[in-house]
């Protein structure tokens, strides 16, 4: 059998280390993520979902356990070095794009994720048709704003651009941290559809945090419930298909 694309072995994190307030946030996470997995993650506020993404992304170091990428230990690899194989989209549309650069320039930058980036503007012209076609797949008019500064886009267009940028250079792992939560219901649904399309047709490996149980059930092949820093359930394949909102809701009680 192939190695998991990402594996977490007994991963633990602490906050307020060495003080009287020292607290364990992740309490021994064991998780094997296989190539092509699209995992939705749900859990109460404070369950540790963002902390899990921080520790996978490398902006928080694990205080115990191991993280392996294709079998290689990356537990101590920096956040910057992990961008060579990992991309993340945040809830805040402002976080994923450079506001003064145009849509096309941002996209060009994204083709160089994980490399020393300097823009060669002649490459803009060469890539414009491809970028415009890609922007059109987001179904929100982004393709008509290729030379607009990103700061002037609507929140929905900016977040769609962040998502596109995260996937332009194929990441081994894509982390979606409530990436539609700041959008209105219609815009959010549109981006979710585009997200699902790009992940499934591109066979990307993705983890998506959401507070919408319906969305967690609708999308992906796997669903994880995080509670109090631990994985309480991991539904795969058919077990996920027969899962209902009512059953899932039980994990949020008490
Ligand atoms: N730097 C920190 N210092 C102290 N406590 C922290 C720190 N970072 C996270 N925590 C605590 O760790 C717990 C988990 O936080 P985390 O943000 O991972 O939860 P979450 O599941 O993403 O929550 P939400 O759904 O509200 O976004 C929370 O109790 C939070 O207060």
Task: Describe the structure in your own words.
The chain is an alpha/beta fold and 254 residues long. It folds into two domains: 1-85 and 172-254, Rossmann fold; 99-170, no CATH class. It has helices at residues 49-57, 79-82, 103-110, 122-136, 155-168, 185-201, 213-218, 237-241, 245-249; strands spanning 6-15, 23-33, 38-43, 64-69, 72-73, 86-89, 173-177, 206-209, 222-227, 230-236. Strands 6-7-8-3-9-10 form a six-stranded mixed beta sheet, sandwiched between helices. A four-stranded antiparallel beta sheet has the order 2-1-4-5, covered by helices on one side. Strand 9 (222-227) and strand 10 form a beta hairpin. The mean pLDDT is 93. It binds adenosine-5'-triphosphate. Adenosine-5'-triphosphate binds next to helix 1. It comes from Limosilactobacillus pontis. Keywords: ATP-binding, Cell membrane, Membrane, Nucleotide-binding, Transport.
Summarize this structure as a short list of keywords or feature phrases:
254 residues; alpha/beta; Rossmann fold; six-stranded mixed sheet; four-stranded antiparallel sheet; 33% helix; globular; binds adenosine-5'-triphosphate; ATP-binding cassette domain-containing protein
